[in-house]
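Before the break, one more example. Copy the sequence into your notebook; we will annotate it together after we see the structure.
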Amino acid sequence: MDTSQIQTILQLILSLVFGGVIGLEREYKKKGAGLQTYSLVALGACIFTIVGSENFYYFLGQPGIAFDPSRIILAVATGIGFIGAGVIIYRQDHVEGLTTAAGLWLVSAIGVAVGMKFYLLSFTSTLLAIIILIVFGELERKIFKRDQR
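Here is what the structure looks like once it is written out:
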């Protein structure tokens, strides 16, 4: 096992941890998508990014082949959009699942960031997500009198 393989394994673990941290908060609030879902989305996004970026170097310079690794990011964002759309539900007089959809979208971006080796960006994004979900959620509940559904 060479250092690039070890780095890849560490990237996968890191994306799982970051997604899992955000998923734990969702589990604590007893949301449908939690630890497993958020971890899987971050891990999947990281895998797509690693495979795509590694293939870029493989195809680089080969005649007749145009390869743009940014398309992987677009594909991840599009795919997670379908998942997010599936969790948004309109019931009677309110909408449910918007925060879950946004959270899944965010952890997919964090997975991409880890896959692209932007570790500080992905770590900071994870911390900010936890602040948003905990602190802002509490503000909404107390100041704006929104209940936790």
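DSSP finds five helices and two strands in the chain. The longest helix spans residues 3-28. Try to locate both features in your own notes.
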